[in-house]
Write the structure tokens for this entry.
Amino acid sequence: MQELRLGDQVVRYDRDATVTAYAILKCGDADRCGCVYCRNFAAQRTSAYPLEFLSLLDQLGIDVGKEGEVFDMAGPFDLTSRPVGGWFYFVGEFVEAGERLIQSGEFRYWFQPKFPRPPACFGERVVAVEFSTVIPWLLKESAG
């Protein structure tokens, strides 16, 4: 395993094992769910992430098209944009949990020690990288 520092958080990760786990998965959460919010996210998932986040996902061995979870944040919002969040799993373990998040404009991300149980292909030692951001509403149908 290799070690990685993100802000005040430190993890160990196994890139090869993570790549192998993602090869087993058919699709990400937004594609599995298919609700209007997830479809809006899926329509722009790669453009929603800043380059440094995409680089982090690649370093960890994460398939950017296969998020473990995506969620639309509840509340009254502007009809042209939506706050969303989600996370990706990777094979690894925490060395230092820390508290700080990394921010790039509206986009925030951090390592998360608590999350719903990932698919079995990730094994027993799993960490998540969580994100939150605001994305435009692209679909012709209303967000409701």
The beta strands are 2-6, 9-13, 69-72, 81-96, 102-104, 107-112, 126-136.
